[in-house]
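Re: the request from the purification team.
They wanted to know what the chain is likely to look like in 3D before they choose a buffer screen. I agreed to run a prediction and write the result into the notebook, where they can find it.
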Amino acid sequence: MYVTSRIGKVVDASKVQVRKVNIGGNTISTPCIDVCKLDPSSGFCMGCARNKEEIGSWSTKKEEERVRIIEEELPERKQYIHYPPINK
């Protein structure tokens, strides 16, 4: 599924993607693809599939927990997200 990012770019959100970002001198894993829109039906972000609590606490989680969520939980959540149609 394709969604529009915060800067208006059309991105593929069908699979969980992992990026490494530097926050406060620490490199952390994140699934964020800059969509940042919650699906009202599932409560998951249409881009990364995290819920509101996970997004807010992501930088304070241990790296092992972030990786576990990315690998074990987020891929399954994608099926519960309702994506609005967009024009590519």
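For the purification team: Residues 31 and 76 are 14 Å apart (CA to CA).
Please add any questions underneath this entry.
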